[in-house]
């Protein structure tokens, strides 16, 4: 189901850079038309977070230790290794691609399904990468900033990259032919909920600090998101050895691994 949603997003976002007549819009037109929508959607997401997501994350944080949350973070980081391997390969980083494959094999087996980062202790450092970075490498435009329901800040390239990487999730592939079974549905959506609850809990102090220090919280989040994406500007058609700066690109400001 998540793969179908991801594919839908990838194809439907083609319309994001055009107006209803199919012609390209000027940047000023895009900004003016999107600003009202973005602020309204940001306020909607803020209320959902304030009344639902944040209380759940607080409860989750209260009943778990930092060690447990680190294990959960490592587990989901390990599931991203196949996507990193594919995107490193697409960018011509063959050694990094092989290292991502090795990390996935080692951490999935000896690291107890990735909950422990054994591979880093063996000198196999994480070579994180994404389809977003792959598109940036080949100079695909980022597109305008906009806010997605629930998911939050995005650009067309960011969202397409997110959808493409979701397709490479090994857990989804393992459960793909079992989606008519109740336990598989629970596992699929339960794991997704746990991933984002854990991430929300780990970023709680950072987001609270940003909100407390902001006169305009929407403008602060938008600025932080766009500044975080500036790392992609230097990798367009850059030599492979010069594009290592694309190693991290999550808006969660990098969860620390234990």
- Unreliable sequence segments: 6-25, 242-251, 253-258
Helical percent range? Answer: 55-70%
Please state how the strands of the largest beta sheet are arranged side by side. Answer: 1-2
Total strand segments: 2
Pick out its properties.
258 residues; mainly alpha; two-stranded antiparallel ribbon; 12 helices; 2% strand; disordered C terminus
If you had to describe this structure to a student in words, what would you say it looks like?
This protein has 258 residues and is mainly alpha-helical. It has one domain. The chain contains 12 helices and 2 strands. It has a two-stranded antiparallel sheet with strand order 1-2. Helix 2 crosses helix 10, helix 3 packs across helix 10 and helix 7 packs across helix 8. The longest helix is centred in the first third of the chain and has 37 residues.
Topology (SSEs and partners):
Blueprint lengths: L1 H11 L14 H37 L2 H14 L1 H10 L3 H16 L8 H4 L9 H7 L8 E3 L3 E3 L1 H12 L2 H6 L6 H21 L1 H9 L4 H12 L30
Antiparallel strand pairs: 1-2
Helix pairs in contact: 1-8, 2-10, 3-10, 4-5, 7-8
Task: Provide a compact summary of the structure.
This protein has about 260 residues and is mainly α. The protein contains twelve helices and two strands, in the order H-H-H-H-H-H-H-E-E-H-H-H-H-H.
């Amino acid at each position: 189901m998540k793969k179908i949603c991801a594919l839908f997003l990838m194809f439907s976002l083609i319309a994001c850079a055009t107006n209803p007549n199919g012609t390209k819009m000027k940047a000023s037109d895009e900004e003016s038309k999107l600003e009202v929508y973005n602020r309204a959607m940001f306020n909607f997401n803020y209320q959902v977070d304030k009344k639902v997501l944040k209380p759940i994350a607080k409860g989750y944080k209260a009943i778990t230790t930092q060690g447990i949350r680190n294990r959960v973070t490592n587990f989901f980081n390990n599931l991203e290794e196949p996507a990193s391997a594919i995107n490193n390969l697409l960018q011509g980083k063959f050694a990094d691609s092989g290292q991502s494959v090795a990390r996935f094999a080692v951490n999935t087996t000896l690291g107890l399904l990735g909950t422990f980062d054994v591979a880093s202790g063996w000198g196999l450092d994480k070579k994180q990468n994404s389809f977003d970075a792959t598109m940036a490498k080949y100079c695909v435009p980022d597109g305008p900033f906009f806010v997605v329901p629930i998911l939050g800040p995005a650009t067309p390239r960011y969202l397409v990259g997110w959808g493409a990487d979701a397709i490479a999730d090994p857990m989804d592939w393992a459960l793909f032919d079992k989606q008519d079974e109740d336990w598989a549905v629970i596992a699929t959506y339960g794991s997704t909920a746990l991933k984002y609850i854990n991430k929300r809990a780990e970023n709680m102090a950072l987001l609270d600090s940003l909100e407390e220090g902001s006169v305009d919280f929407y403008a602060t989040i938008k600025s932080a998101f766009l500044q975080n994406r500036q790392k992609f500007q230097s990798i367009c058609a850059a030599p492979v050895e010069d594009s290592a700066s694309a190693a991290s690109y999550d808006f969660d400001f990098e969860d620390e691994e234990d």
